[in-house]
Design goal:
CATH superfamily of chain A: Aconitase, domain 4
Largest sheet of chain A: 7 strands, mixed
Order of helices and strands of chain A: EHHEHEHEHEEEHHH
Number of domains of chain A: 1
Largest sheet of chain B: 5 strands, parallel
Strand order of the largest sheet of chain B: 5-4-3-6-7
Number of strands of chain A: 7
Largest interface: A-B, 51 and 66 residues
CATH class of chain A: Alpha Beta
Strand content of chain A: 15-25%
Oligomer: heterodimer
Strand content of chain B: 15-25%
CATH architecture of chain A: Alpha-Beta Barrel
Helix content of chain A: 25-40%
Structural class of chain B: alpha/beta
Distance between the termini of chain A: 35 Å
Number of domains of chain B: 3
CATH class of the largest domain in chain B: Alpha Beta
Shape of chain B: globular
CATH superfamily of the largest domain in chain B: Aconitase, domain 3
CATH architecture of the largest domain in chain B: 2-Layer Sandwich
């Protein structure tokens, strides 16, 4: 997994609330036994027509979409199925950060496990970002801040909270398995105590 | 006196291998790891990459369910997989289970079925356990008083390797459902009412314990339906304290303890109930007697109405979008909706009691000429028992198709699809856009409602049917 510490880039806004993982990656793309190329199918039913042709005018088909490392999505992003294919598809497409005012539990932990940074902001901060499609912002995981310059010239530094261990692993690109491996004696002791 | 603990506290505390610290999550031991073909291949790849084996194959149980065809093999034993890739995925799980010594319920197993139907039927699911699977509907197993939740593929790899997970303790919520559900109102209706109340994200960050008379009165199948749908309100796990109903269900099941060991276990299981005065971060009380047979009209499971009611007028952009996708106008009667497809099955409602309920409605009746109806048993055990009771003949005589066990049309990755623009009344768990195929429109309901809707060819509850003549 690729480390992420601080990232500056344009945001891409998807206004819809409750975007579920079936939208992010429809079930018919789950039969692969690896995650290679899965980004090509991100939001497939939104981006492509029934013949597989890109739908003109969809924001995800604009040239800037693949250049935007930060996705800002409506409230309650990533609900539904536990498919890890969802954060992999977002990563494969080119996103490194997803920002919303609520992120579903399983999607959040899956994202942290594969190197996609999930950020939850306060409703008013989120609402401000939703109006800034295409503009550049900075996400600083080290400082746990989203840094945004608004049209009135003000620079905002919005704090966000993240599980400290998830942050530690994301910043170093560490697989959490290493931590479990180090606990081997404790695991054995637990098994023997039952 | 020790502080009173909730069912969830007891399950959590008894599985902590290493406590949570300021900078690290807790390490939680996993008693049972259920595995299927879709979310496991990359987990096994991780083991190969690291050169390690499966720590506890004896605590790991695998089945084929998501990508498997529900039509039978041809004369040469070739199964009609939807794609070559689906076939390869099934073969990959077979190879992985052989390589790592995991018990797989393949096509020839008398137990093969949807992972959340098979585990309980075998008695592998037991009170007091921690249970995980790379599938969000793992919450089903909480019906037994287990802590059960869905995980991602990376975590599947972690559990295969170390039989443990890194977790921060979620918040707790208790939902008390007082009173009794009226006649004809099922566990599915109860669940849809709860999700309507909480909203599809009202449970995010929580583990939910269901309690109260209406919950206690449910049989194990009904409890599984209720816990199964917990994730549809955003909560990873739902649970119900073990009681006599739980114990009676488990007695004699293959994987459950036997003889005196069972009695000893049962005594311990009864101790798991939340102590008087146990603390919850949130507590809600609902009244069962006001609940009616319900159906979803929108594109998330929180958007449901009582059958006979009008679809609410849109009060937000996302609600408006949902109505447009479903082809509904706000204020339209939900019963007027013509139904093209009816699906009875899934880990939510694919158990024997569900099939009996649907068959009771269909017996002596025919489904409407324009309706295509699929009945898909949740497991081989369900299929065998249903066939021994003649339920399959009731279904086929009414004009429905009787299929082989699997997830089938619930997520439509095996080729059992609802066409674009068609409306399906489904006993499954998700009505998301395109869930049952690109452009498909899903309305979630109980098996009884699904069967009644198949007969009338429009959305209907059982009470909308003409009574059958006696005799």
């Amino acid at each position: 997994m690729k480390a992420i510490t601080k990232l500056t880039g344009p945001i891409l806004v998807l206004e819809q609330e409750n975007i579920d993982t079936d939208q992010i990656i429809p079930a018919r793309f789950l039969t692969a036994t690896d995650f290679d190329g899965i980004g090509d199918h991100l939001f497939a039913d939104w981006r492509f027509d029934s013949k597989g042709e890109p739908k003109p005018g969809h924001v995800l088909n604009e040239a800037r979409a693949v250049e935007s490392p930060i996705l800002v999505a409506g409230h309650n992003f990533g609900c539904g199925s536990s498919r890890e294919h969802a954060p992999h598809a977002l990563l494969g497409f080119g996103f490194r950060v997803v920002i919303s005012s609520q992120i579903a539990d399983i999607f959040r932990s899956n994202s942290q496990n594969v190197g996609l940074l999930p950020v939850v902001l306060e409703a008013d901060q989120h609402a401000t970002l939703m109006q800034m499609d295409g503009e550049e912002i900075t996400v600083d995981l080290e400082a746990c801040k989203v840094i945004v310059s608004t049209a009135d010239g003000a620079e905002h530094r919005w704090p966000f909270s993240i599980d400290p261990f998830a942050r530690h692993c994301l910043m170093r690109g560490l697989d959490r398995l290493e931590f479990l491996n180090q606990a081997e004696d404790a695991i054995t002791a637990y098994e023997e105590s039952r | 006196m020790p502080a009173p603990e909730s069912l969830f506290d007891k399950l959590w505390n008894s599985h902590v291998v290493q406590a949570q610290s300021e900078s690290t999550p807790a390490i939680i031991y996993i008693d049972l790891h259920l595995v299927h073909e879709v979310t496991s291949p990359q987990g096994f790849d991780l083991l190969r990459e690291k050169g390690i084996g499966v720590r506890r194959p004896d605590r790991t149980l695998a089945t084929l369910d998501h990508s498997t065809p529900t039509l039978p093999a041809d004369g040469h034993g070739n199964r009609p997989y939807y794609t070559e890739q689906a076939k390869r995925q099934v073969q990959t799980l077979r190879d992985n289970c052989r390589e790592f010594g995991i018990e797989l319920h393949d096509w020839d197993s008398p137990y093969r079925g949807i992972v959340h139907v098979m585990g309980p039927e075998m008695g592998a699911t037991q009170p007091g356990m921690t249970i995980v699977c790379g599938d969000s509907h793992t919450s089903t197993h909480g019906a037994f008083g287990a802590l059960a939740f869905g995980i991602g593929t990376t975590e599947v790899g972690h559990v295969l390797a170390r039989q443990c997970l890194l977790q921060s303790k979620p918040k707790s919520m208790r939902i008390n459902v007082e009173g009794r559900l009226p006649e004809g109102v099922t566990a599915k209706d109860l669940a849809l009412n709860i999700i309507r109340y909480l909203g599809m994200n009202g449970g995010t960050g929580f583990v939910i314990e269901y309690a109260g008379e209406a919950v206690r009165s449910l049989d194990m199948e009904g409890r599984m339906t209720l816990c199964n749908l917990t994730i549809e309100a955003g909560a990873r796990a739902g649970m119900i304290a073990p009681d006599e109903t739980t114990i009676n269900y488990l007695r004699g099941r293959e994987r459950a303890p036997h003889g005196e060991a069972f009695d000893r276990a049962a005594e311990q299981w009864l101790q798991l109930a939340s102590d008087l005065g146990a603390d919850f971060d949130s507590e809600i009380t609902l009244e069962a007697s006001a609940m009616r047979p319900s159906i979803t009209y929108g594109t998330d499971p929180g958007m449901s109405v009582d059958i006979g009611e009008a679809v609410p007028r849109a009060d937000s952009l996302s609600h408006q979008k949902a109505l447009k996708y479903m082809g509904f106008q706000g204020g339209q009667q939900v019963n007027d909706r013509k139904v093209d497809v009816v699906f009875v099955g899934s880990c939510t409602n694919g158990r024997l009691t569900d099939l009996r309920a649907a068959a009771d409605v269909l017996r002596g009746r025919n489904i409407a000429g324009h309706v295509r109806m699929l009945v898909v048993p949740g497991s081989e055990s369900v299929r065998r028992q249903a066939e021994s009771e003649g339920l399959h003949e009731t279904f086929t005589a009414a004009g429905a198709e009787w299929r082989l066990p699997g997830c089938s049309m619930c997520l439509a990755m095996n080729g059992d699809l609802v066409a674009a623009g068609e409306t399906a009344v489904s006993t499954s768990n998700r009505n998301f856009e395109g869930r049952q195929g690109s452009g498909s429109r899903t309305m979630l309901a109980s098996p009884e409602t699904a069967a009644a809707s198949a007969v009338l060819g429009r959305v209907a509850s059982v009470s909308d049917l003409e009574p059958m003549e006696a005799g």
